[in-house]
Amino acid sequence: MTPPADLCLSIDLDDLRHYRAIHALPPGPAGEDDRLFERAVPRFLQFAEDLGIPTTLFVIAEDLQRVEGALEALREAVSRGHEIASHSLTHRYDLSRQPREVMAREVREARSRIQEALGVEARGFRGPGYNLTPALLREVAAAGHAWDSSILPAPMYWAARASVVAWMALRGRPSRSITGRARDFLARPRTPFRWPEEAGGVWEIPMTAAGWLRLPLIGTNLALGGFLARHPWNGARNLPFVHIEFHGLDFLDIREDALDPDLGIEPVLRVPLEERTARFREFVAPLVASRRGLLLSQVPSSAAPP
Ligand SMILES: [Zn+2]
Question: What is the pTM for the complete model shown?
Answer without folding.
Answer: 0.92
